[in-house]
Design the sequence.
């Protein structure tokens, strides 16, 4: 008779099964699971840690335990889930090795009793060899980071393997992150990528003052902490926030701090006409209206998105900003021509004072929040020579967006990626193509309208080329990118 299987690990295995069967995202599966209701707070935290960790490192985990399986082995999906879970705990959590192995064996036994012996042999190897290899990689990278050579540009295969082991990323993605950010920033990102990201929240300024928002958060049992940003609070825990319904209703706005800084950089003037491309569920719309209101009054915003479901969600969340906000279903790449609900771009009323592009991207700056990205992303998706790649799509959207900017108006290009293929390279391609119509506005120049405290936060992320690029690190915001342009055509 084996050891008793802990309820948290049993629940985590069940949630992983839900993810596999329904092709769900980890956070969605956790939110919808009925298995967590009877668990203690500590057990729920362990379930979340295990599920999100496995989601973030799944491809690497398969390689780690797979090294000790026969090439002819064919694993039942539930056994694979159990081995992934146990391997993650052995290699990335501080659980004593004997406990992690024992619990891993019981996980496998719970779904395939005859495979318990195999699991015992494999997991002992993982614990003694692979976990030690990851610990050694972590120590060597720490030494390199502390040395004077930490940004030497050394990205040989051994270095990439070590960083991949520490972060749980594919080697190819690790290489691109280092090439885009440099070793120091990539190392900091790798060290925190399996941790929970900080959480910032604000109230819908059409409904609540800052004081009312603070009381609303406290009524949910949360502890809002003040930040340098007006009306924005940091939360140490999000427990109860999602279930409250206050985010989906539009009462509260959850958004990363760096995303908020980008909105402040682009904050529209009161009464100005704004086109928001990639409106999604309306989060940035709420932030843009809040930023405009802080300057004196609301802006008039037309938001477009290609996905009908998101348009309906945005309409519901933005009711409090009627009649200043309109939500349209439209293909961003088609905005250079006639679009239902919008005057043609060759008409004055078809152009805007500001066009804000929240571009579809890899999301590599948000791996802490969206752990599936690392192993679902492909190299082809980032290849600018691939006509179906993200950079090609981003350039197409930016090109179409430019046709909607009035002379003297502002164009904003933003992503939540840390990869230069989607950020600096897209900006450079656009400027090469449209240098007679648009110039880059340095982010530090755009920040001069903001408070000293906010300027200080923004300047930390300004690149030598004048763009905004935040980098994920422990207790720091996500990776977001922004470039601002001015239309220099004569009126």
Sequence:
């Amino acid at each position: 008779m084996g050891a008793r299987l802990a309820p948290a690990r049993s629940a985590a295995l069940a949630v992983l099964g839900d993810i596999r069967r329904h092709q769900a995202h980890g956070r969605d599966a956790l939110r919808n699971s009925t298995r967590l209701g009877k668990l203690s707070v500590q057990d729920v935290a362990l379930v979340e840690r295990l599920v999100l960790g496995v989601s973030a490192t799944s491809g690497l985990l398969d390689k780690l335990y797979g090294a000790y399986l026969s090439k002819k082995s064919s694993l039942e999906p539930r056994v694979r889930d159990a081995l992934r879970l146990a391997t993650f705990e052995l290699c990335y959590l501080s659980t004593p090795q004997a406990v992690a192995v024992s619990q891993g064996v019981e996980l496998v036994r719970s779904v395939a009793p005859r495979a318990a012996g195999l699991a015992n042999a494999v997991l002992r190897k993982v614990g003694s060899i692979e976990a030690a290899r990851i610990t050694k990689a972590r120590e060597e990278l720490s030494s390199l980071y502390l040395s004077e050579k930490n940004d030497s540009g050394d990205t040989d295969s051994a270095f990439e393997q070590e960083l991949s082991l520490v972060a749980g990323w594919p080697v190819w993605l690790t290489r691109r992150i280092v090439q885009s950010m440099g070793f120091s920033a990539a190392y900091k990102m790798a060290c925190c990528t399996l941790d929970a990201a900080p959480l910032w929240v604000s109230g819908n300024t059409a409904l609540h003052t800052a004081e009312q928002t603070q009381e609303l958060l406290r009524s949910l049992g949360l502890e809002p902490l003040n930040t340098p940003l007006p009306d924005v609070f940091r939360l140490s825990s999000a427990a109860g926030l999602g279930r409250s319904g206050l985010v989906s209703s539009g009462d509260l706005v959850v958004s990363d701090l760096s995303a908020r800084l980008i909105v402040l950089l682009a904050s529209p003037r009161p009464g100005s006409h704004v086109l928001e491309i990639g409106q999604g569920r309306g989060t940035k719309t709420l932030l843009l209206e809040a930023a405009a209101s802080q300057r004196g009054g609301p802006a008039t915003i037309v938001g477009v998105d290609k996905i009908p479901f998101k348009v309906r969600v945005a309409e519901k969340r933005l009711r409090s900003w009627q009649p200043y906000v309109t939500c349209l279903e439209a293909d961003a790449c088609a905005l250079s021509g006639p679009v239902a609900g919008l005057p043609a771009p060759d008409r004055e009323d078809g152009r805007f004072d500001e066009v804000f592009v929240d571009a579809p991207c890899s999301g590599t700056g948000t791996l802490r929040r969206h752990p599936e990205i690392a192993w679902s992303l492909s190299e082809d998706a980032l290849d600018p020579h691939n006509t179906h790649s993200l950079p090609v799509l981003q350039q197409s959207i930016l090109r179409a967006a430019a046709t909607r900017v009035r002379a003297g108006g502002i164009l904003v290009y933003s992503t939540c990626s840390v990869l230069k293929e989607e950020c600096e390279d897209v900006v450079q391609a656009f400027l090469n193509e449209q240098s007679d119509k648009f110039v880059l506005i340095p982010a530090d120049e755009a920040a001069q309208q903001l408070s000293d405290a906010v300027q200080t936060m923004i300047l930390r992320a300004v690149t030598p080329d004048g763009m905004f690029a935040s980098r994920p690190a422990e207790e720091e915001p996500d990776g977001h990118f922004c470039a601002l342009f001015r239309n220099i055509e004569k009126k």
Remarks:
- The CA atoms of residues 105 and 250 lie 45 Å apart.
- Residues 148-194 form one domain.
